[in-house]
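A student in our group prepared the protein record below, which I am reviewing. Thanks in advance; the entry in question is below.
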Amino acid sequence: MIARRMCFAVIVALINKTAFARPTLGDKEWMRRFRELVKTFNTFLEILNEGKFDVSKWNAVRAAWKDVDVG
């Protein structure tokens, strides 16, 4: 019974570590997220250049920034 619980705990810990691992600056996953940030920011700027402020686009930029931030 205890061995089963220990195995379950180890499996959950490994899944959490790999599933929620943050990318490191400059690696492939970080670069993918950075490209998404740039695309999202460009979309926001296009609307801003038209003299409009779209809160949903701004929130998308903020969310994309959180994905890129490694600090």
